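Review box. Two proteins, two foldings.
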Amino acid sequence: MRAASAQAPGAVVLIRPHHFRPNPQTAADNNFQRPADHDVSREAYDACTRVAETLAEAGVRVHVFDDEGDTHPDSVFPNNWFSTHAGGRVAVYPMYAPNRRGERRADIIEMLKAEYRVQEVIDYSGLEPDDLFLEGTGAMVLDHVSRIAYAVRSKRCDPVLVERFCTVFGYEPVVFDAVDPDGVPIYHTNVMMCIGTDIALIGLDAIVGDARREEIARRIRETGRTLIPLTAQQVASFAGNALEVRGHGGERLLVISETAHRSLTDEQLDILSASCRVLAVDVAPIELAGGSVRCMLAGIHLDAR
């Protein structure tokens, strides 16, 4: 049995939407987003149920909340508005798109307080009127072991707020620029980068500047991880949008979409499988909104009561 890891949470929050659709307010800066040619609400609901059942069967504790309203098309992505941290701390984040700000739910925070040891909730959402945004673990990919916060600069990721978060929560900020093959800025770090216990998936070629690219690759390797570079096509297939979690007996699992899984080479899958068991789930309807499995899961890094 592989050793458990602080990088891999044993519990997650998942939001199951009843009226899912790609969000028109995020289409301008999310180049991963695609329009739906029919109502995919039921398909998206079923995809979320599939993820929840797959994780629960593997031994991950899954807290499922339903969103029955029709005003928050991106509510399926809770990792953007809150994150949890060892030591009992929770962060709540300011959101770029106005129709995403109502995704923040007091009942989820209250559940965390009831089920886990929460010492402090730090709420940055009051910075939205100042046009300062930091969309959680979409904007930042956190190395919980080496205490590094990787963050792609964007409208949704203000470097000043990254610095502020890192000072309070004890991470070192590593902020950089990244673009797709058309030169369009990457909107969220977690669509191009995943940090696991032993591995790191990253679209290295998307990073702007040879020196910065080499520096980030070096930083990842210095933490002892095997670096798996992703091609632009693999990033577009959400291969970077994966999350390592912990199941039965502390088994480490890499949750990834079937779209992403199909894009990976046999060699890459062999490297991943040497580190953790790969769980591929079909979430194609959700991917129309420009995010995949990792975006759907808010990891819980808190001690249970």
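Next protein.
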Amino acid sequence: MLLLFVLFSNCVSAKETLHIAVASNFKPVLQKLITDPALKDINFKISAASSGVLHSQIMHGAPYDVFLSADASRPQALIKDGFAIKDSLTTYAIGLLALWQPSSSVMNNKLAIANPRFSPYGKSSMQYAKAFIKTPYEFVYANNITHAFQFVETGNAAKGLVALSTLKSAYGKTKNKKYLNYTLIDTKNYPEITQQGVIISASKHLTVAKKFMAFLNAPATAKTLLALGYKAKDSDASK
């Protein structure tokens, strides 16, 4: 019996743990992706926060193996400063915007968007709103794209430019049809929301980190991303 316990313990300990720092908007999707059988030999630890916070933590030595940012600038900055591996840089997802107005009973003229000063979603939302939303409105600036969704959810804004992935996640959990009351914005009408990831140079789990990054770029993963409200690089968001 003791021998069996020792063998079992060695088998469990043989699994490497990959610590992923992920932008908050992508956390629910990542949690689904890591259940894929292709990754069954890896244990995952997830730390989610804003891309800016995670970038700062990595610069100060946080023991992450992979960084999945909501933008392209921070992973590239980490490479430039020697904190990430250049050849590992990949566009793992492209964010999609939707104009959401869950109820016509909310009559205020407020439009919620992520703050363009801090959020790549906000920058794209601002450019789209100014070019294509012609009715009078007042911007309500949210801390991030998830916060913009919450403004509309609570009725503090009648409508908002939100992440399609957030709407899909909410509908998947509740089946409430209000989360279907949106218009998907044509990606040609706003700057691409490129989300890039890198392997951290100090990682002690490079083999499994490379395996995970390859999984993110696999064709099967691209289909999953579309179903969950993101676009993979070179995939068709209209499907």
